[in-house]
Amino acid sequence: MVLEGPEGAGKSTLVRALADRLRDAGHEPTVVREPGGTPAAEALRQELLHADRSWTPERELLYLAAARADLVGQVIRPALEADRIVISDRYDLSTMAYQAAGRGLPLPMVSWVNQAATGGLRPDLTLILDLPVELGAARQIAAGKARDRLDREPEEFHRRVAARYREESGPGVVHLDATQPSDLLLSKAWEAMLASPAMPASARAS
To answer: Could you tell me how far CA 87 lies from the centroid of its own chain?
Structure first.
Protein backbone atom coordinates (compact mmCIF):
# COMPACT_ATOMS: atom_id res chain seq x y z
CA MET A 1 0.00 0.00 0.00
CA VAL A 2 1.18 3.52 -0.83
CA LEU A 3 0.24 6.91 0.58
CA GLU A 4 0.62 9.88 -1.75
CA GLY A 5 -0.19 13.57 -1.73
CA PRO A 6 1.20 17.10 -1.79
CA GLU A 7 3.34 18.71 0.90
CA GLY A 8 1.67 19.01 4.30
CA ALA A 9 -1.08 16.50 3.55
CA GLY A 10 -0.23 14.36 6.58
CA LYS A 11 1.07 11.25 4.85
CA SER A 12 3.76 10.40 7.40
CA THR A 13 1.37 10.80 10.34
CA LEU A 14 -1.21 8.61 8.65
CA VAL A 15 1.39 5.97 7.76
CA ARG A 16 2.34 5.66 11.43
CA ALA A 17 -1.30 5.45 12.54
CA LEU A 18 -2.15 2.75 9.99
CA ALA A 19 0.94 0.76 10.94
CA ASP A 20 -0.13 0.91 14.59
CA ARG A 21 -3.58 -0.41 13.69
CA LEU A 22 -2.01 -3.28 11.77
CA ARG A 23 0.16 -4.13 14.77
CA ASP A 24 -2.94 -4.11 16.97
CA ALA A 25 -4.43 -6.60 14.50
CA GLY A 26 -1.43 -8.90 14.90
CA HIS A 27 0.61 -7.87 11.85
CA GLU A 28 4.05 -6.29 11.74
CA PRO A 29 4.09 -4.16 8.57
CA THR A 30 7.19 -3.12 6.70
CA VAL A 31 7.07 0.69 6.67
CA VAL A 32 9.22 2.63 4.21
CA ARG A 33 9.51 6.13 2.84
CA GLU A 34 10.62 7.61 -0.46
CA PRO A 35 13.19 8.66 -1.18
CA GLY A 36 14.89 6.60 1.50
CA GLY A 37 14.52 3.30 3.29
CA THR A 38 18.04 1.94 2.69
CA PRO A 39 21.46 3.44 3.50
CA ALA A 40 22.05 4.32 -0.14
CA ALA A 41 18.56 5.75 -0.64
CA GLU A 42 18.77 7.79 2.57
CA ALA A 43 22.06 9.30 1.39
CA LEU A 44 20.41 10.21 -1.91
CA ARG A 45 17.48 11.71 0.01
CA GLN A 46 19.82 14.01 1.90
CA GLU A 47 21.29 15.27 -1.34
CA LEU A 48 17.94 15.63 -3.11
CA LEU A 49 16.28 17.63 -0.33
CA HIS A 50 19.26 19.70 0.78
CA ALA A 51 18.14 23.31 0.60
CA ASP A 52 21.44 24.52 -0.87
CA ARG A 53 21.72 21.98 -3.68
CA SER A 54 20.93 22.76 -7.31
CA TRP A 55 19.61 20.05 -9.64
CA THR A 56 18.49 19.80 -13.21
CA PRO A 57 15.09 18.07 -13.50
CA GLU A 58 16.72 15.16 -15.36
CA ARG A 59 19.37 14.59 -12.69
CA GLU A 60 16.74 14.84 -9.96
CA LEU A 61 14.69 12.18 -11.75
CA LEU A 62 17.65 9.81 -12.03
CA TYR A 63 18.67 10.21 -8.39
CA LEU A 64 15.10 9.47 -7.31
CA ALA A 65 14.99 6.43 -9.57
CA ALA A 66 18.24 5.11 -8.13
CA ALA A 67 16.89 5.49 -4.59
CA ARG A 68 13.63 3.76 -5.56
CA ALA A 69 15.37 0.89 -7.31
CA ASP A 70 17.50 0.23 -4.22
CA LEU A 71 14.46 0.36 -1.92
CA VAL A 72 12.43 -1.98 -4.12
CA GLY A 73 15.25 -4.50 -4.50
CA GLN A 74 16.58 -4.40 -0.95
CA VAL A 75 13.40 -3.99 1.11
CA ILE A 76 10.02 -4.01 -0.64
CA ARG A 77 10.28 -7.14 -2.78
CA PRO A 78 11.84 -9.25 0.00
CA ALA A 79 9.08 -8.11 2.39
CA LEU A 80 6.34 -9.00 -0.09
CA GLU A 81 7.96 -12.37 -0.75
CA ALA A 82 7.83 -12.98 3.01
CA ASP A 83 4.07 -12.18 2.96
CA ARG A 84 4.50 -8.96 4.92
CA ILE A 85 2.26 -5.94 4.45
CA VAL A 86 4.25 -3.02 3.03
CA ILE A 87 3.24 0.59 3.62
CA SER A 88 5.20 3.17 1.63
CA ASP A 89 5.18 6.90 2.21
CA ARG A 90 5.31 7.84 -1.51
CA TYR A 91 6.14 5.68 -4.53
CA ASP A 92 6.28 6.14 -8.30
CA LEU A 93 3.19 8.36 -8.51
CA SER A 94 5.21 11.01 -6.68
CA THR A 95 7.58 11.08 -9.64
CA MET A 96 4.69 11.57 -12.05
CA ALA A 97 3.43 14.45 -9.89
CA TYR A 98 6.69 16.19 -9.04
CA GLN A 99 9.03 15.48 -11.95
CA ALA A 100 6.51 15.14 -14.81
CA ALA A 101 3.76 17.60 -13.82
CA GLY A 102 5.82 19.81 -11.52
CA ARG A 103 9.12 19.97 -13.42
CA GLY A 104 7.65 19.49 -16.87
CA LEU A 105 9.72 16.46 -17.85
CA PRO A 106 8.31 14.44 -20.78
CA LEU A 107 5.81 11.84 -19.61
CA PRO A 108 7.34 8.99 -21.67
CA MET A 109 10.73 9.65 -20.08
CA VAL A 110 9.36 9.64 -16.54
CA SER A 111 7.24 6.56 -17.18
CA TRP A 112 10.21 4.63 -18.59
CA VAL A 113 12.45 5.57 -15.66
CA ASN A 114 9.73 4.59 -13.18
CA GLN A 115 9.31 1.23 -14.88
CA ALA A 116 13.05 0.61 -14.77
CA ALA A 117 13.29 1.55 -11.09
CA THR A 118 10.33 -0.57 -9.93
CA GLY A 119 10.65 -3.50 -12.30
CA GLY A 120 6.92 -3.14 -12.85
CA LEU A 121 6.02 -3.59 -9.17
CA ARG A 122 2.69 -1.87 -8.58
CA PRO A 123 0.88 -1.16 -5.29
CA ASP A 124 -2.39 -2.97 -4.56
CA LEU A 125 -3.76 0.21 -2.99
CA THR A 126 -2.82 3.87 -3.41
CA LEU A 127 -4.34 6.34 -0.96
CA ILE A 128 -4.07 9.92 -2.22
CA LEU A 129 -4.48 12.66 0.37
CA ASP A 130 -5.95 15.66 -1.43
CA LEU A 131 -5.21 19.03 0.15
CA PRO A 132 -5.17 22.65 -1.09
CA VAL A 133 -1.64 23.94 -1.55
CA GLU A 134 -2.19 26.92 0.76
CA LEU A 135 -3.36 24.71 3.62
CA GLY A 136 -0.42 22.36 3.18
CA ALA A 137 2.03 25.27 3.40
CA ALA A 138 0.26 26.67 6.47
CA ARG A 139 0.44 23.29 8.20
CA GLN A 140 4.18 23.07 7.59
CA ILE A 141 4.72 26.54 9.02
CA ALA A 142 2.57 25.79 12.06
CA ALA A 143 4.53 22.58 12.67
CA GLY A 144 7.83 24.44 12.44
CA LYS A 145 9.07 22.18 9.64
CA ALA A 146 12.45 23.16 8.20
CA ARG A 147 11.91 24.09 4.57
CA ASP A 148 13.79 21.73 2.27
CA ARG A 149 14.57 22.27 -1.40
CA LEU A 150 11.17 21.09 -2.62
CA ASP A 151 9.28 23.11 -0.02
CA ARG A 152 10.96 26.23 -1.42
CA GLU A 153 9.67 25.73 -4.94
CA PRO A 154 7.23 28.38 -6.21
CA GLU A 155 3.56 28.03 -5.38
CA GLU A 156 2.72 27.32 -9.03
CA PHE A 157 5.00 24.28 -8.93
CA HIS A 158 3.09 22.89 -5.96
CA ARG A 159 -0.23 23.65 -7.68
CA ARG A 160 0.81 21.53 -10.66
CA VAL A 161 1.82 18.72 -8.32
CA ALA A 162 -1.47 18.84 -6.41
CA ALA A 163 -3.47 18.95 -9.64
CA ARG A 164 -1.69 15.84 -10.94
CA TYR A 165 -2.56 13.98 -7.77
CA ARG A 166 -6.22 14.99 -8.06
CA GLU A 167 -6.32 13.64 -11.64
CA GLU A 168 -5.06 10.17 -10.72
CA SER A 169 -7.62 7.37 -11.04
CA GLY A 170 -7.81 3.67 -11.73
CA PRO A 171 -7.92 0.31 -9.95
CA GLY A 172 -6.76 0.50 -6.36
CA VAL A 173 -6.67 4.32 -6.27
CA VAL A 174 -8.63 5.96 -3.45
CA HIS A 175 -8.78 9.71 -2.87
CA LEU A 176 -9.19 11.00 0.69
CA ASP A 177 -10.01 14.52 1.80
CA ALA A 178 -6.98 15.53 3.88
CA THR A 179 -8.84 18.52 5.34
CA GLN A 180 -10.83 16.11 7.53
CA PRO A 181 -10.01 15.75 11.24
CA SER A 182 -7.16 13.28 11.72
CA ASP A 183 -9.32 10.65 13.43
CA LEU A 184 -11.86 10.68 10.61
CA LEU A 185 -9.11 10.56 7.99
CA LEU A 186 -7.59 7.54 9.73
CA SER A 187 -10.98 5.83 9.81
CA LYS A 188 -11.52 6.37 6.08
CA ALA A 189 -8.00 5.18 5.27
CA TRP A 190 -8.43 2.06 7.40
CA GLU A 191 -11.74 1.29 5.67
CA ALA A 192 -10.01 1.55 2.30
CA MET A 193 -7.25 -0.79 3.48
CA LEU A 194 -9.73 -3.37 4.73
CA ALA A 195 -11.55 -3.25 1.39
CA SER A 196 -8.35 -4.07 -0.50
CA PRO A 197 -8.20 -7.69 -1.74
CA ALA A 198 -4.55 -7.81 -0.67
CA MET A 199 -5.41 -7.27 3.00
CA PRO A 200 -5.15 -10.47 5.10
CA ALA A 201 -8.45 -11.82 6.41
CA SER A 202 -7.12 -11.63 9.97
CA ALA A 203 -6.78 -7.85 9.67
CA ARG A 204 -10.33 -7.52 8.31
CA ALA A 205 -11.63 -9.41 11.33
CA SER A 206 -9.99 -7.02 13.79
So the answer is: 9
Position 204 scores a pLDDT of 59
Maximum CA extent, the chain: 49
Q: Name beta bridge partners: 33.
A: 89
Taking only the tens place, the pLDDT of each residue in 125-143 is 999 999 999 999 999 889 8
Q: Are 117 and 142 a contacting pair, CB within 8 Å?
A: no
Q: What is the per-residue pLDDT across 29-86, written as a single tens digit (0 to 9) for each? A: 999 999 999 999 999 999 998 878 888 999 999 999 999 999 999 999 999 999 999 9
Closest CA to 12 of 206, 182, 200, 184: 182
Please state the length of the chain.
Answer: 206
Nearest C-alpha neighbor of 7 from the set 87, 72, 90, 111: 90
CA distance 112 to 146: 33
Angle between helices 133-142 and 155-167 (to 10 degrees): 120
Count of Cβ atoms closer than 10 Å to residue 103 Cβ: 20
Cα within 13 Å of Cα(163), Cβ side = 9
